[in-house]
UniProtKB/TrEMBL annotation:
CDD domains: NAT_SF. It comes from Undibacterium terreum. InterPro entries: Acyl_CoA_acyltransferase, Bact_Acetyltransf, GNAT_dom. The lineage of its organism: Bacteria, Pseudomonadati, Pseudomonadota, Betaproteobacteria, Burkholderiales. Keywords: Acyltransferase, Transferase. This is N-acetyltransferase domain-containing protein.
Length: 159
């Protein structure tokens, strides 16, 4: 296993992996198509953020994208936003996601972030809680067949 900085040439494989990983949770093909743009990773995104890929057997097995923002205009302390974190389904529940998330936390610390904000898929809630994040709210995110669906909002405080 190796984790390296993502490059523009990785963008298509990263986009495909995001779609594959989200589909793993049983979302319909129609719903996946609606999310295609949200799951698209562009070379421009990679240039403007802190993006890393995990390689296993010379293939991208997971990745994350981290951006930096300030809590408000008067804040001098940055916070990181976890834009994406995806693991190929065949590597889920093997510690790869935890290793990738730990790497993201270390990058955020180096960038002097005090916390990582996470807008999570409902299926990822338990993962982030197990990694030490705290649920601070939720956003309504209804989809066809699940009008009450919400996206958990989490924060991981960095020491």
């Amino acid at each position: 296993m190796g984790i390296r900085k993502a490059v523009a040439a990785d963008a298509p494989a990263m986009s495909a992996l995001a779609m594959q990983s989200k589909q793993h949770w049983g979302y319909s093909a129609e719903q996946m198509e609606k999310w295609r743009d949200d799951l698209h990773i562009s070379p421009q995104m990679l240039a403007e953020t802190h993006a890393y890929v995990m390689e296993l057997d010379r293939e991208i097995a997971g990745f994350y994208v981290l951006s930096i923002a300030f809590a408000d205009a008067s804040s001098a302390t940055p916070a990181s936003q976890l834009e994406h974190l995806w693991i190929a389904p065949e590597y889920m529940r093997q510690g790869q996601g935890r290793a990738l998330f730990a790497h993201a936390c270390n990058v955020a610390r180096r960038l002097e972030s005090r916390q990582i904000n996470i807008d999570a898929d409902p299926y990822a809630l338990d993962f982030y809680i197990a990694c030490g994040a705290q649920k601070v709210g939720e956003i309504a995110a209804p989809i066809e067949g699940d009008a009450s669906r919400v996206r958990p909002q989490l924060v991981l405080k960095l020491d």
